[in-house]
Queue: 2 jobs
Job 1
Amino acid sequence: MTPLIEAEHLTRYYDKNCAVKDVSFILGKGEVLGFLGANGAGKTTTMQMLCGNLAPSAGQIKINGFDLLDQPKAAKLNLGYLPDTPPLYKELTVQEFLLYCCALHGITKASRAGAIKTAQERCGLTKVTDRLIANLSKGFQQRVGIAQAILHNPEVIVLDEPTVGLDPIQIREIRTLIRELGQDHGVILSTHILTEVQESCSHVQIIHQGQLIFNETIAGLNRQMNTGTLQISTRLAPDINCLSALPGISSIEQISANQLKVHHSITANPAEQLAETIIACGWGLQELTPIKRSMEDIFISLTKDHLDA
């Protein structure tokens, strides 16, 4: 199966400043790729290159097999794009704006009503179709922006910071929509919000100072979040030497007389043996909790390591 996006060695300079350096990745159908980075990391520049709004200084982009530089029209027919500021004409109604976008996308007059109906249904806009865009909430305006990006049923949908400025309920609704779109399309979601990636994406890439420093599935990310540490509380002070002798335990950090942090091999979790030993010895097990790194911890660790390298 042809990948929906093939980006190879993308590089972009602004004068002598390298905003994006040697970025490569592949996106397939049914994947939602979270493109994560701090403000100024190079996310938007990369998105603009992928959408043909900005030419790379070096590298190649293929959209559904079409080279974006050599066959721009064919490539862009397979592409839907929501920039960080939705391109809306707020003096129009939702219906009028989407009709205008149909013309821009080259959708035939006979197919426009069906395309608009489908996009409105997918984006939850059927009840506001005759309202002025200016009178809609920020969340509904974002939905209109996504609707214009999917009107022509593109293979690839690129969303740049789609939940910025939304309230928690609106954010949840947009995330649900993104997951639904990811079932039938390839989606790239650019964001600096860590939980956004965990909630919406199947894959994650982290860009820092213009370079990709992390590329993993969400399942792989979750494995990295497992630190191999257990926090234990007991009613009576346990025998540290006895617990240290259990297989798989690398070290024990004593927080207080009755509180421990047990570090162990990730591949050999000794939680069950620890619990059995503590209970059998009568020390009174009160807590046994795995400690996980947050995605924020991983992000900070990766970016710090990159700076120190």
Job 2
Amino acid sequence: MDAVNFGVLGASGFALAHTARAINEAEGARLAALATSSPAKAAPFQAFAPDLTVHDSYEALLADPSIEAVYIPLPNHLHVEWTLKALEAGKHVLCEKPIAMQADQIDALIEARDRTGQFATEAYMIVHHPQWQLVRRLIDEGAIGAVRHVDTVQTFDVGADVTNIRNRPETGGGSISDVGVYTYGSVRFAARAEPVELSSRIRRENGVDVWAHVVGTMAHDGAEFTFASTTSTRLPNRQEAVFQGEDGMIRVTVPCNAGVVGEAQVHLVRGDVTLVERFPTVRQYVLQAQNFVATVREGAPYPWSLEDAKGTQAMIDLVLANEM
């Protein structure tokens, strides 16, 4: 089976550190092209992918017939535009999260995906990690009984970096759009739940939210549980997710940046007994690329669809609409 040739739109630092490398290392995938007008930015990509073709524009990369799939790590406000352009150019698309800034924008992506027959999805890597697949299975199997409360948190500090896109309103910055996809979307995935009622308290600087606390209720098959979430781009690094049920608790360590800021673990607590599952070597970005290839080449099921992404964005929209 021929490898899927990927092109990357833009020489972003995140792509260099994580996803582009993972694509090049994933079985069945090959990092084949990069779009950037800067030779200096292209050089570190060429260091691990020496046969890389460098195009000086996004349009030139999309016109390259040797490229089957495109990875889009552009600033948030450009995701919809370039996902649509890539689909119309006949490319499969893996686009960074959030794939849109409002839920209804994803309808155009779904229409283009269905019309062109190309595969398109959000780069929501955590659902590929066995950590989160285990959490979902434990909840499905009733390991902690009915879920009664979930709280999630992800914080980090980029306050000193005024050029960071997370600090810029014109690029879709803010903690909610940047990491709310994790603190909200992971609960939707693991508990198969949707929000019922939410309210939020938000603190902003320069037009972007730098701290947000959300409380409310979510439900699965009519069974409700309380929910709380904190995101911030002005607090020290912290991330955790806790699912409390009638019969026990699941604590998820490093639920987002597994293997980067710490070891991914799942703690199942039932009474005085705690079982711990550790994942010290799993690389979720590589798994994401391999699952993408399996879907493109073999039609294998993929754990995160555009419809799933729309559900999380709808939750983000609800959070923003219900600020206290």
